[in-house]
Design a protein that fits this description.
Elements: H1 6-11, H2 18-23, E1 41-44, E2 51-56, E3 63-68, E4 80-82, E5 89-91, E6 95-101, H3 105-108, E7 112-118, H4 123-127, H5 146-165
Antiparallel strand pairs: 1-2, 2-3, 4-5, 6-7
Length: about 170
């Protein structure tokens, strides 16, 4: 991913107001991000921990969405969970259901769409093997190359973004 500026990131959001985009806080490690290892930028807002943000490079420029993080951890008897974007298996606390308001008037009316994502939004690093889930037993061996896993991750993420922006 090509590095983005603060202005590029803030102007990319499609499902929040310009005021909300101007108030969001960038990742604490923004200056040290490993851009070359990222397929998208995802972070939990350090100033509002119940908000997360994702910015994805697209042909017509970056596309950003804001998501709601659940206030409490989900309680489940399930030992492992799977990220719907990168398909990394985690302990159940490593995946969380994030809800994105839809873009436009439907979002202002309160309509949302959700996705189970790696709680730390580090799908790019998991796909490349740069970060390991805490529960290694959840990791399954794949015959896909890293490039194929990256492509699958971005296809899944873009399908979710299309749901947020449809309408």
């Amino acid at each position: 991913m090509e590095p983005l500026t603060d202005k590029q990131i803030r102007s990319s959001f499609v499902n929040c107001t310009k005021g909300e985009a101007s108030r969001l806080r960038l990742p604490l490690d923004f200056a040290e991000l490993p851009w070359e290892e990222l397929d998208f930028l995802g972070w939990v807002d350090p100033g509002a921990p119940l908000r997360a943000h994702v910015v994805v490079p697209r042909e017509d420029g970056p596309l950003g969405i804001t998501l709601r993080v659940p206030a409490t951890g989900r309680t489940s008897a399930v030992k492992t969970s799977l990220c719907q974007v990168c398909l990394t298996g985690h302990a159940s606390s490593g995946v969380t259901l994030l809800a994105a308001p839809l873009a436009g008037s439907r979002g202002r009316e309160g309509n949302t769409v959700g996705v189970y994502l790696c709680a730390d939004l580090a799908c790019s690093l998991y796909v490349r093997g740069k970060r390991q889930p805490r529960l290694r037993a959840a990791r399954h061996e794949e015959s896909l190359t890293v490039d194929e896993r990256i492509q699958r991750t971005m296809t899944n993420l873009n399908a979710f973004l299309d749901k947020v922006t449809a309408g």
